[in-house]
Design goal:
heterodimer; A: mainly alpha; MetI-like fold; two-stranded antiparallel sheet; 73% helix; flat; B: 287 residues; mainly alpha; 2 domains; 12 helices; 77% helix; globular
């Protein structure tokens, strides 16, 4: 067989999934969001649905909430994950069980984490019961609303608990791979502990930590299950609004829902591009996967 | 190998001057206690969610303000596995879809991963990026677009339609994962086997497959898990007709039955824990 034909055949199924299902679906979504939606008799191409999103107060509030939550959750997870990786470095090398324990939350699906978090931080949850036992509150109503609250605290808690171990694992993988030769060398040259951290260790792990943080931001920006269970209807995160409008009995809302999904896809697409650029900078074999 | 215990030159000098020999011992202690504190927190955060879900699933009438359940009950577990609850069929549906997605993902991934790892061609970088996109970005928009097509060709509300949509994140992930395995594979072994007269099938069975088997197992398990944990795409494409485990889980959570929700969460996370326990060691070795 001609090598070129052979190569084409080898790549054909993957190209069908990417080009057909993924890109094709994305293209059809774009077409629908631009107003070609035969079920409601729309067959023209117009930016009207995007324009309506821009003047939509719910969209603005949702975009602000989504962006803020994704940023704060990513910042906290990245800082805590980096610190955890640095603190656990020696322990993970000597006792692999701690490496395993650090990886364990990665295996917990987001839905299961959301359920566990609700049971812990809800007004009648475990923390509220501990507060009652300590005499801090008298009844569930005294406990601050952390689930379905205005600021999405519950969503934040669930994501930080899920994503901190993810960033820690990605960072720790690099720390364990590079060993401590670089730091020992800096030490021999008279670098202080802080200088070693600032000028040797951090630059070495930064690509891994930052690229993991990009993945986390992109994931939270478009994720649905956690905000669906832990958030309130208004303001809701973008994907929750997209789902609600898409499932609405009023078919006229559908193109707007698709426009919302296209916006989410565009934002996450840019982030994945940034990740891909960054990931090339370090030769790590780590592949991110989030459930 | 000498460990970092915080004794650099200046500290040694200070110690000499102050005549206090335990400064470095104390700094060693603080480093050790810091890592053990971090280790303890890690252990608690890893085990607590599953332990709590387990407790909730067997508690009966665990009302405010009881810190621990007073009575126990197997009601939730009995309900989960009772034929009339329909949860068993959702479980079978989830497993069936995920298995089909796994097989199809591997069929897509095996040739593509080999091409990506062992051949040079134009557009390779673009293809790698295109494979990475659906792995990280949510499949919301593409699922909506595909849904429009499905409505026309009768794939909406069918198992086949759901399987195809789950392939969008699962197949690219399996491809990227396997490309890593093929990148470490030396094709000279295949050439040697061929020289010795092995048929293509024999080469694949006794040379290629054993070499990539660990990566293949990981790719298969993650393809399974990606499909297993899909919620929104199943809701869109399944249209309420295809009911998988996460859909039942969310319905019970919204319905407010904590015991059944906890039991379902445990059933839902069981395969991920099994996969994790099997592949964690392998992934560590790879790093």
């Amino acid at each position: 067989m001609h090598p070129r034909l052979r190569l084409t055949l080898m790549l054909a199924p993957a190209a069908a999934v990417i080009g057909g299902l993924f890109a094709g679906g994305l293209g059809l979504a774009l077409v629908q969001s631009l107003g070609y939606f035969p079920p409601t008799g729309e067959r023209s191409f117009t930016p009207a649905h995007y324009a309506r999103l821009l003047s939509d107060g719910e969209f603005a509030a949702s975009l602000a909430l989504t962006f803020a939550l994704a940023s704060v959750a990513t910042l906290i997870s990245a800082s805590a994950g980096l610190l955890a990786a640095l603190a656990l470095r020696e322990l993970a090398r000597r006792r692999p069980v701690f490496h395993t324990l650090l990886q364990m939350p990665l295996a917990l699906p987001h839905l299961a984490m959301a359920v566990a978090v609700i049971n812990v931080i809800a007004p009648s949850g475990l923390i509220a019961r501990l507060a009652f036992a300590a005499g801090l509150i008298g009844e569930p109503a005294d406990f601050p609303a952390l689930v379905s609250d205005r600021y999405g605290i519950g969503i934040l808690v669930a994501y930080v608990l899920k994503e901190t171990p993810f960033i820690a694992v990605m960072t720790l993988a690099v720390l364990l791979r590079i060993g401590d030769e670089y730091e020992q060398c800096a030490r021999t040259l008279g670098a202080s502990a802080w200088q070693r951290l600032r000028y040797v260790t951090l630059p070495l792990v930064a690509p891994a930590t930052v690229s993991a943080a990009l993945v986390v931001f992109a994931f939270i920006f478009g994720a649905f299950e956690v905000p669906y269970l832990l958030g309130r209807p208004y303001p809701a995160m973008l994907s929750v609004i997209a789902q609600r409008r898409y499932m609405s009995t009023d078919l006229a809302e559908r193109p707007e829902a698709v426009a919302l999904a296209v916006v989410i896809a565009a934002v996450t697409g840019v982030l994945v591009w940034a990740y891909a650029r960054l990931a090339r900078a370090f030769a790590g074999g780590e592949r991110p996967v989030l459930f | 190998m000498k460990r970092d215990n915080g004794t650099n030159g200046t500290e040694r000098n200070k110690r000499k001057k102050s005549g206090f020999p335990f400064v470095s011992f104390r700094s060693v202690c603080s480093v050790i206690s810091l890592q053990w504190a971090a280790g303890t927190v890690t252990a608690i955060l890893a085990l607590l969610p599953v332990a709590l879900l387990g407790l909730w699933s067997i508690a009966r009438g665990w009302y405010w303000p009881a810190l621990l359940p007073r009575e126990w009950s197997a009601r939730a577990w009995g309900y989960v596995f009772a034929p009339e609850s329909g949860i068993a069929s959702a479980l079978a549906m989830s497993a069936g879809i995920a298995l089909a997605v796994t097989v199809l993902s591997l069929a897509v991934a095996l040739p593509a991963a080999r091409a990506l790892a062992l051949h040079e061609f134009s557009g390779k970088r673009l293809l790698l990026f295109a494979l990475l996109l659906p792995v990280i970005a949510p499949p919301l928009a593409s699922a909506m677009g595909v849904h429009a097509l499905y409505l026309r060709y009768g794939l909406a509300d069918t198992m086949a339609g759901v399987i195809l949509v789950h392939l969008i994140p699962a197949a690219p992930y399996a491809t990227l994962m396997l490309a890593g395995s093929f990148a470490r594979f030396d094709t000279d072994y295949e050439a040697q086997a061929r020289t010795l007269g092995a048929s293509p099938l024999a080469v694949w069975r006794s040379v290629t497959l054993p070499a990539i088997a660990p990566g293949l197992a990981v790719a298969a398990s993650f393809a399974f898990l990606i499909s297993w944990s899909q919620y929104l795409t199943t809701v869109f494409i399944g249209g309420g007709r295809i009911v998988t485990l996460p859909l039942v889980l969310v319905a019970f959570q919204r319905g407010g039955d904590e015991a059944i929700t906890a039991a379902l969460s445990l059933v839902f996370l069981a395969p991920t824990l099994v996969v994790f326990a099997t592949v964690a060691r392998f992934l560590r070795q790879q790093h």
